[in-house]
Amino acid sequence: MAVKSKAKKKAGKKAATKKVAAKKPAAKKSAAKKSGKKVAAKKPARAVKAKAKAAVKKTVSKAKKSVAKVKKSAKGSVAKAKKSAKSSVAKAKKSVGAAQSKAKTSAKKSVAKAKKSVAKAQTQVATTAKSLVKRAKAAAKKVVDSLPLPAAVAEAMTPAADPAPASSESGSSST
């Protein structure tokens, strides 16, 4: 039925244009035809407009979809970047902590070693000092023994039979 009505409309329009052309003189027939054509061409122009609107709507919806996709992907990439940044920061903190603990342990070890070496050095110094004192005493004794003693001192050192020289020895030693 729709097809028949369209045909009727077309036929009516054609008839109307013919009537207009018949009423007007021959010189103006071409203009009337043109005007009739324009009237006839209005309908396809509407269809073209509708098609254009539909196409625009489609492109707009596609653009909106693509924008939404881009936004989604951007959000995802931002989240990924944040995650990776957090993990890298955590790794850096861990490595710093490990380095600090290593430094502390190495420092403690070096301090302990230094203390040990100082203690060793102190004991060596003490032992060498003792041995040096002993040697010095022995050398002094040798020197004293090698010196020629005066006769009075030699007499005092020699053991006497009577106790009288012994008392004099104690007196001489006090002076």
From TrEMBL:
Start-end of Low complexity biased regions: 86-104
Sequence ranges of Basic residues compositional bias: 1-85
Source taxon at top rank: Bacteria
Disordered: annotated span: 1-111
Protein name: Uncharacterized protein
